[in-house]
Amino acid sequence: MNVEIELAKRMLFRSLPIYVIVPLLFYFKSLEAFLTSLYSSVIVATGFFLGAVIMSYAAKISLNFYYFAALFGYVFRLIFIFGFLLLLKNVYSIDDLAMSLTVPIVFLTMLFIEMTMVIKRKDTDLDWANDNSS
Question: Is pLDDT at 7 greater than 90 in this prediction?
């Protein structure tokens, strides 16, 4: 089982209301703000999922490579998110306010939701989480 990928899928599912609520709030401003917020949310979610994929495959190679991938995955995720946001900004006419508010709201909310789930121990059904040998 790819634990990191499973965690990422659960994180995306748990954060689904954020992907709906934030763009809907921007819909009251304009259709352009709604679409910008929607695209920004998808870019952030994809960045998180790609980070999980990198971590999952790195864990299969070695523990040292996993640690390296954790650091590199974070940097890669930031480059991916900001690169695609800049590409979106250069290719389409977007609402700058919607993008600049959506990205931190979605990013920080996803982190907060996962932090809450870790504190509540909601993902103890995964293989590595049941290992109490250390």
Answer: no
**What count of Cα atoms within 13 Å lies in the side-chain half-sphere of residue 20?**
6
| The model's pTM | 0.79
How many C-alpha atoms does 127 have within 13 Å on its Cβ side? 6
In this structure, what token pair is assigned to residue 45? 């979610």
Q: What angle do CA 38, 97, 50 make, to 5 degrees?
A: 40
Q: If pLDDT is split at 50, 70 and 90, which confidence band does 114 have?
A: confident
Element (H, E) at 59: helix 31-61
Q: What is the CA radius of gyration of the chain?
A: 17
Angle among Cα 12, 16, 19 to the nearest 5 degrees reads 110
Distance CA 126, CA 3 (A): 7
